[in-house]
Amino acid sequence: FRVDWEKVNTEEFSDAAGGGKKLTLNALADQYGQAFYPSLKVEMQVMLYFYDKLPQLVAGEAVFTNRGPQALSIDRLVGHCYRLDRRLLDPGQPSWSFASYMGAARRWGESYSLIWTDAATDRENFMGLDPARPAAGEGGGTPLVDLWTPQCGLAVASAETCPQWINLPVRTGKDGLVEVSVCQEPQARFGQKTVLAPGESCSTIRSAVILHRLDFHDALRGYADLLRTRGVNIPLDSPPACYEPYWKSWGFGLDFTLEQIYGALEEIKSFGIKMAMLDDGWFTWYGDWKPTCAKGKFPGGEPDMRKFVKRLKAAGLKTSLWWYPQGVSPESDLAREHPEWLITNQDGTLPRCQRKLYYLCPECPEAVAHVVGLVEKILGDWDYDGLYIDTTGLIAVPPCFNPAHKHDSPLDSFQRQAGLFKAIYERAQALKPGCPLEMCICSLPHDPFKMPYYNVANASDPVNLPMVRRRIKVEKAFRGPSFCVGDCYQIPIHEWEEWSVPESFESAIGTGAQATTLYSALTESQREKWRRWFGIYNALGLSSGEYLNLYDIAFDKPEAHVVRKNGSLYYGFFVERWPRNKPLALRGLEREKSYRVTEYASGRELGTISGSQPEIRCAFAGSLLLKAEPLK
Hints:
CATH topology of the domain at 2-229: Beta-galactosidase, Chain A, domain 5
Shape: globular
Strand content: 25-35%
Number of helices: 10
Structural class: alpha+beta
Distance between the termini: 64 Å
Largest sheet: 11 strands, antiparallel
């Protein structure tokens, strides 16, 4: 394309995201008929938006117009394409060596918060959910990729206000440079334009580039701020009840009995835990959501469920319930009686999620009304205090071709999935204002378009301790520095399995996370440990403190996190071993103040330091939790 630099236009603009400067560029690409190439002429107009309140990012979109004599096929539309070379900042490093965040939901247990690029990196980062392409991943996620070095970082993202059927590819080329972009591949089955007739135009989605320092934190924060200004109302904090620690029954598995739960109540209450959550295994079929009459559970059906909730409350505990509102078992009454509520493939078959369940269509009013009625039953009739919404199927739903739903496009179900969770959240808050509603996407990156509709985030089933801490930082960036983010459970080491992480209260409290737990039985020494750490959690209240982005989780050693609460700074350092001869830098202290430094988990005092020389020397293994309290 050749840019017409004489027709560059700059003007003031104002939209839902605020005001600023709009830059419009016009360009032309042409090719006249030769022996092997047809004639073509394409005009491109690029609009770039520079927001006054979001100086770290530039949003943009492009319009392509066919000015030639023949129709053109549209294979893909590419925006915000960049080729990165780390050597420009670090001459001694390989061109392709970047730390990265990639928000596409691919596979259970994969890292998304810290991925190192290399000479062979080639990731499609597909953001849709296509049953015909299971190898492309679970679908959905956070439509942003970020690459950074110790000096700076660059992220590209969709700037639209709902999920888009796009790719965010990251590839290392033959020349060693890493290319990132936002890519659309239109499809006729969705009613999208795949051929551009003479005189016709097509547009890219609006996307954005974000520049930042340190790790992914500020890129995600800037992206969330952009979405907020465009109408995706992601809350910045959580109601007080959300921060209360809880225990859930998953330690007993699907085959729990009520007597097992009743037998645990006094113990968990003695730890300072305020809520007991009933996990998976309580119901007959997905979609029907009737209490199971299985032995040891709810033989009397709903009356027994009400008795269960009353007994927990009589013991002084609140309670919440596990639920996957979109899933429908093929054996359920709902699937038999209302197949017209379900998402349908183009060939008339019914797509299934990872649990082999059908999907309720979020654009089917009757299906939404059914789900809202279940909220009323759970929180109203049964009197639960909150909801725990779970499974990988939450991440996205496939396109819906069900003619009964009269969709404008099959993508309506995919793009408007958040509407179902909006209905759930609004009814829940109307019934019990401030009640906790948590969503776990089962090891996948959270979807920002659903974030307005749950007030407890979590680390999304991490499979190792560094992943726990990184994902907590991800959610604090997206949701707000004081938002409630769960640690995804303290599990005693003898009950640990590979789908979870072993006990590490330090990783939870040291990052400002909500402390939660599941287990079937503890030893006496473990009881003392649980009692001690939940006591620290309740006393300090760091989960509602302000998370500060002062360290790079990829390049700073040791790994470090900081939470500010009541004027003091709380540091969590994590490394296999750290020697005393290497100083630890306590970032964020005010130069003119002096601070008393305490190892707050043990109460050991480490002395006084000046904000102008914010270093201490302390050997440790695993973790070190410090409090820096300003001296008056």
